[in-house]
Amino acid sequence: MHEQAFRFGSSRHLVGIVGLPPVIDHGVGVVLLNAGMVYRIGPFRLHVDLARRLNALGYPTLRFDQSTIGDSGAGGKLLARPEQVVADVGEAMDLLHQQTGCRRFVLFGLCSGAQNAHSVAHADPRVVGALFLDGYGHRTLGQRLRHYLPRLMKASVWKQWITRKRAASGPRPPEPAFVVEPLPGKVVGGQLADMLARGLKLDFVYSGGVSRYFNHVRQFRECFGRLADHAGVSVSYFQESDHTYVLRGDRKRLLDHVAQWMGRHFPVTRPG
Amino acid sequence: MKARIEADLPFYFGPGRELFGFYHPAPAASGAAVLLCPPLGAEQIRCHRLYRQLAHALAEAGFPVLRFDYYGTGDSAGHGRDVDWTRCLADVATAATELRARSGAQRILAFGTRLGANAALDATDAALAGVVAWDAIADGAALVGELDRMQDALKVDLNRFDQARPELDVRLEWQGFETTEHLRAQLSVVGLPALGPRTAWLVSKGSDAVSEHADRQGRSVEAIDVAPRWDDIDRLEMAILSHPLIDAARRRLREMA
Questions:
Q1: Alpha-carbon span A133 to A257, nearest angstrom
Q2: Beta-carbon count within 10 A of A109 CB
Q3: CA separation (Å) from B96 to A80, A225, B8, B68?
Q4: Which of B215, B225, B251 has the alpha carbon at shortest distance from B111?
Q5: Reduced to 3 DSSP states, what percent helix, strand and coil does chain B have, rounded to the nearest 5?
């Protein structure tokens, strides 16, 4: 392992860890974005495990905290959150370029990290690929049928529903949350088409933890039509996994998937 | 405030530069410095923001502060399955040495939460002058049992999974982190030391064993509740934040300094 900690950015407000492979081929670097409000190590240290796996395969990485998340402070300019995200990830790519010589980047984002990766991939020409975990998608008629019909037949679902009804505490109150309203589906589809026209490779991974809005690999086509046929698009649905990959086997499967996707689309010419 | 945050420094230290640390210099040194010992597993991530806020509050109060990650946790080197309790105690001592060198302080105080409190209390090589312990673990075997029960409940939790997975063997996993038979055995015998550094005890509801231990020491106990609870599997990814905790820890550390 060769990792170095940095405070960086135009206002020195960002904190991140650069991970280096044994040999750098100046090819593609990978930037890992915050998953929600979880700091840079990721849910259950997912980002650390992934970064080190990619380093061992020959890819430089940067896992970092965006403005006001984790150890990072506020930026020096008054920017709206979407603009701040693009600026932060832009400065992260600047740092990884300075440290490794990489000029092309792949973004990895889970949940709101996927939304942020989408925004940056659309805005910054240095991005050549992105992995979106539980990112954009919307409920469809097929999703509703797949979600509700089997549940009506399951005794365990009825039992759980009755147990909750009887519970003295009643339904769980909503948690305080920082929520960014997602882009409309048509806008997302248009931006994805723009990215694919630029040659980006895009990987969409959905987990069973978001079955409330996405529950079958076929649903990507229901959401985004012919984009599903594009050679630059890969779609996977890990039904058994939860949203944050809390189980070891699920995490390993995800890491294997990312490693294979990177090797297919961005092969390292001088493997570490 | 902003200038001070910019002075906070992330870095790697210790033999082989294997440990990650975050140093918070104090504008006006008080003569003592504070080492923040994190808990383990999911609790470490849940407490990250709280520890950062506490570090800033202590630095403003004149204490240089070092936050750090044990080997196999956070940004430090090592895999989750490499976590070893004996190594955790050695890492506390290594971090205390680093803090002495960076701050120039002769007296090192510590704050720890859950197993982080036990690590500070048990790390005799760190030569700590005092410890503020929040919800220290009084019975390691009970903790192991609680973590096992949480893991068993987690794999069939339909709030988390689309389908329950009762068939999975998750004995060597605790809420997102791998564990080992060795670590289970080590943690099973963790408890509160009969002798140790001067300690201020902070406890949430249900920590009766810690209160009884403090009574035997002739020390008072201050109630600081935690929300969400440590054993709430519905909120494993939710940060634990507490301004009362920050106020109490700062006050107790000032009394010790």
A1: 12
A2: 26
A3: 41, 58, 17, 10
A4: B251
A5: 45, 20, 40
Sheet containing B199-203: order of strands = B9-13, B19-24, B65-68, B32-37, B107-113, B130-134, B199-203, B221-223
Contacts of A83 (CB under 8 A, 6+ apart): none
Q: How far apart are the C-alpha atoms of B66 and B98, rounded to whole Å?
A: 9
How many residue contacts between A and B have a Cβ separation below 8 Å?
102
Give 3-state DSSP helix, strand, coil % of chain A, rounded to 5: 45, 20, 40
Distance of residue A58 Cα from the nearest chain B Cα, in angstroms: 18
B234/A172 CB distance under 8 A: yes
Model pLDDT for residues A185-219, shown as the tens digit of each residue: 899 999 999 999 999 999 999 999 999 899 999 99
The one-letter code for the residue type at A77 is: K
CATH number among 1.10.10.60, 3.30.540.10, 3.10.450.120, 3.40.50.1820, domain B2-138+194-256: 3.40.50.1820
Quote the ipTM score. 0.95
Written as six digits, the tokens of B85 are: 């309790």
Which residue ranges form the domains of chain A, and what is each CATH number? 2-138+187-265 (3.40.50.1820)
Cβ partners under 8 Å of residue A148, min gap 6? none
Q: How many CB atoms lie within 10 A of CB B175?
A: 19
CB contact under 8 A, A43 and B8: no
User: What is the per-residue pLDDT across B100-151, written as a single tens digit (0 to 9) for each?
Assistant: 999 999 899 999 999 999 999 999 999 999 999 999 999 999 999 999 999 9
Q: How far is A211 from chain B (nearest CA, A)?
A: 7
Which residues of chain A have a CB within 8 Å of the CB of B2? 73-74
Angle at B203 between CA B62 and CA B133, to 5 degrees: 45
Domain ranges (residues) in chain B: 2-138+194-256
